[in-house]
Amino acid sequence: MFSPYLAIFIFIHFVIYLDARTQCDDCRNLVADFHRGVDGTKDGGFLGGDVFWEELNLKNYAKSELRFIEILEKVCENGKFGCLKILEKHEDDLLEWWEGDRKVELFEWFCVGKVAQCCPEGTYGPECLPCLKWHDKICSGYGKCVGSGTRGGDGSCHCDTGYRHDNCTLCSHGYYKMNIDDNFSCVKCDTKCNGCDGPGASGCVACSSGFRMADGKCEDIDECDTNEICLENEVCSNTDGSYSCECIPGYQRGGKECVEDSAKEDL
């Protein structure tokens, strides 16, 4: 039985992860706004005059506090509380980066380093631990690391459809593993199969409803061979894995039964 305590535990961790993701997104958006502000203040409003005068003023303006203030006017314009909260608390840190050598990209320096609300992609959690890898691919290349890039999450792999296990290295039920050079992929089983270990109907380990194993492969069961499977005035039509009952000529569907065409007009 599924424990309610386990459900609460999972819910709490999910909320913590979402909060960490939101905090990182807020910082990421702030940095994006800052870069847009940098692009928007490149000319400093000095274009159109004497070339020498422009070059001199732009050089002085390029790393000036005046330009920094103009850039900040473009930051958090959406008014989101999370962005504004970071800006209020860490404006001096942004200025430190602005006046420094800027060798480290702002996101890495600010969001990962100073503010510590994000991690480099491929790492997660408070200590920015590395996500699980297989053949140097996170979650084998077939999933997402929970918390990647944030200070939250548990680093587990959320596998793509068809993949499972800790590192997404196994195939889910209904899929089979196909090796390709040094890699693999999980391929969906034939519709006739209820589980398979290879392609086509001959790769089935069991058959889906409406099919049966014959000569090493799953084949359709002709339900219409069964007597009286359909009601009176109906004819059986076999389909792949199923069947349907259609009204015979001169009759049409009237509720659950087939009635004469003229009789339906009177209903």
Automatic annotation (TrEMBL):
- Show the SUPFAM superfamilies listed in the entry: EGF/Laminin, Growth factor receptor domain
Q: Which residues form the signal peptide?
A: 1-20
Q: Which UniProt keywords apply?
A: Disulfide bond, EGF-like domain, Repeat, Signal
Keyword Nucleus found? no
Q: Does the keyword Disulfide bond apply?
A: yes
InterPro entries for this protein:
EGF, EGF-like_Ca-bd_dom, EGF-type_Asp/Asn_hydroxyl_site, EGF_Ca-bd_CS, Furin_repeat, Growth_fac_rcpt_cys_sf, NOTCH1_EGF-like
* Gene3D superfamilies named among the record's database cross-references: Laminin
PROSITE patterns recorded for this chain?
A: ASX_HYDROXYL, EGF_2, EGF_3, EGF_CA
Select a single GO molecular function from the record's annotations and give it: calcium ion binding
Q: Where is the EGF-like domain?
A: 220-259
Top-level division of the source organism's lineage: Eukaryota
Q: Which family does it belong to?
A: Belongs to the CRELD family.
Full protein name: Cysteine-rich with EGF-like domain protein 2 isoform X3
Species name for this entry? Oopsacas minuta
